[in-house]
UniProtKB/TrEMBL annotation, chains A, B:
<dbReference type="InterPro" id="IPR051932">
    <property type="entry name" value="Bact_StressResp_Reg"/>
</dbReference>
<dbReference type="Pfam" id="PF01740">
    <property type="entry name" value="STAS"/>
</dbReference>
<dbReference type="InterPro" id="IPR002645">
    <property type="entry name" value="STAS_dom"/>
</dbReference>
<protein>
    <submittedName>
        <fullName>Anti-sigma factor antagonist</fullName>
    </submittedName>
</protein>
<dbReference type="InterPro" id="IPR036513">
    <property type="entry name" value="STAS_dom_sf"/>
</dbReference>
<feature type="domain" description="STAS">
    <location>
        <begin position="1"/>
        <end position="112"/>
    </location>
</feature>
């Protein structure tokens, strides 16, 4: 299942529509990295609302995406983690370092907007 | 291949023109540290756009430069990391701690300018 990637102003939105295979996760990573560069995006929101499971490969791939986009100058936000997913992630010791977390897509975009506004005012944080 | 270092107001710009040997990287480090001191620079932008590979020595040297210049009061920005370089850096576990990241040279200088403006408003950050 391919993940549609939408461009909205300076952000990219990847809205996951169903469970993804490992290969599909890697494809999502490669596409996001390429599009961040192409569109000079400032932020990426990955909406994981529909996922009711997050295995170690998925968590690792999301972490990689966050790290890679950061090296390109864009902040990644993971939005919509379900409570059961959050619980199992903690129990399995899975983390999402380098990414910011938001309740849902709307919250994620707001986060990037306020972050962008702050950076325009007072400079980027590393 | 020597790296030209340009002075622009309170910033130094090191524009890498091609692959650098380990010795050339160390020379760049030494020159930047000396010039930050000499010109009392507030920021350094290292433009790595032309690099299509970043090995562990290069990443470590860039990290050192960022740490050293920070101790002299100047923020280092690494600008123009290519998507493939970002991907391989994450896969190899290479990081650029202490440096800020910008999309390109222009973005890097803007980052330092807004950062400088903030510091003038609210006092320097350590």
């Amino acid at each position: 299942m391919l993940v549609p990637i939408l461009k909205q102003e300076h952000c990219l939105i990847a809205s996951i529509q169903g469970e993804l295979s490992d290969a599909e996760l890697l494809l999502l990573r490669d596409q996001l990295v390429a599009q961040v560069r192409q569109h000079r995006s400032r932020g990426v929101v990955i909406d994981v609302t529909v996922l009711d499971i997050m295995d170690s490969f998925a968590a690792r791939t999301l972490r990689s995406i966050a790290q890679m986009t950061k090296l390109l100058g864009a902040q990644t936000v993971i939005a919509g983690i379900q409570p059961e997913v959050a619980m199992s992630m903690v129990q399995l010791g899975l983390t999402l370092d380098h990414a910011m977390i938001a309740m849902d897509l709307e919250d994620g975009l707001a986060l990037l907007r306020t972050r962008g506004a702050r950076e325009n005012d007072v400079g980027h944080q590393p």
